[in-house]
Automatic annotation (TrEMBL):
Residues 33-81, 108-188 form a coiled coil. Keywords: Coiled coil. It comes from the Bacteria. PANTHER family: MEMBRANE-ASSOCIATED PROTEIN VIPP1, CHLOROPLASTIC (PTHR31088), PHAGE SHOCK PROTEIN A (PTHR31088:SF6). This is Phage shock protein A, PspA. Belongs to the PspA/Vipp/IM30 family. It comes from Allomeiothermus silvanus (strain ATCC 700542 / DSM 9946 / NBRC 106475 / NCIMB 13440 / VI-R2).
Length: 220
């Protein structure tokens, strides 16, 4: 299983757990990033181990390659010394070294392929983390924007706008009624004053008529 496959399984498992527990989306984002960073650390270790194994295979193959050359020289020396049996044995040892060398060459090719794949996945993971880091601030900002909008919506739902408007209208009607009542009393007070003034005028006329009558009767 590749690095990215394991990472995907890990992130899905952790995020699904957070979602089941109805965690904060911001916490889910942070958890996903932490999982990716953890996977990146593991991937780097895995790549380093694969590269170390490749170097070991190359050293082993180089060792057998040197043995091939050495047994070739020994076989030649044995022939020059007239020791064909020794030359034959040296060539058998050379053949064994050649077989092992060829086997290591195959292992080296396979291990290089593994290292190349791991390096490709490692770079892809690094790119994904960089992209996620870049999107993190935007996602959190969008989340906060949604939260603010939801807070406004909840506030609006708690406030009965119709009732508030109706209360204001009722208060306005009551104040208007109070103003009308005050105006009525003021008008009534004004009427009383006018009546008193009229009564004063009537009393004066009566007094004058009474004085005239007394004078006429010689009573003044």
């Amino acid at each position: 299983m590749g690095i990215l496959d394991r990472l995907s399984r890990l992130i899905r498992a952790n995020i699904n757990d957070l979602i089941r527990r109805a965690e904060d989306p911001e916490k889910i984002i942070e958890q996903a990033l932490e999982d990716m960073r953890s996977a990146l650390r593991d991937a780097r270790v895995e790549v380093a181990e694969a590269m170390a194994e490749l170097k070991k295979l190359e050293r082993d193959q180089q060792n057998y390659s040197e043995q091939i050359a050495a047994w070739e020289n020994k076989a030649a020396e044995a022939l020059r010394a007239g020791k064909e049996d020794l030359a034959r044995e040296a060539l058998r040892r050379k053949a064994q070294a050649q077989t092992l060398s060829d086997g290591f060459l195959q292992q080296i090719a396979q291990q290089r392929s593994v290292v190349d794949q791991l390096m490709t996945q490692l770079k892809a993971l690094e790119a994904k983390i960089q992209e996620a880091e870049s999107k993190k601030a935007l996602l959190i900002a969008r989340k906060k924007g949604v939260e603010a909008a939801e807070a406004v919506r909840r506030m609006d739902s708690k406030v009965d706008t119709h009732a508030a408007v109706q209360a204001f209208e009722e208060m306005e009607d009551r104040i208007q009624a109070m103003e009308d009542k005050h105006a009525a009393f003021s008008e009534m007070d004004k009427s009383d004053i006018d009546k008193q003034l009229e009564d004063l005028g009537s009393d004066k006329a009566v007094d004058e008529d009474l004085a005239r009558l007394k004078k006429q009767l010689g009573m003044s």
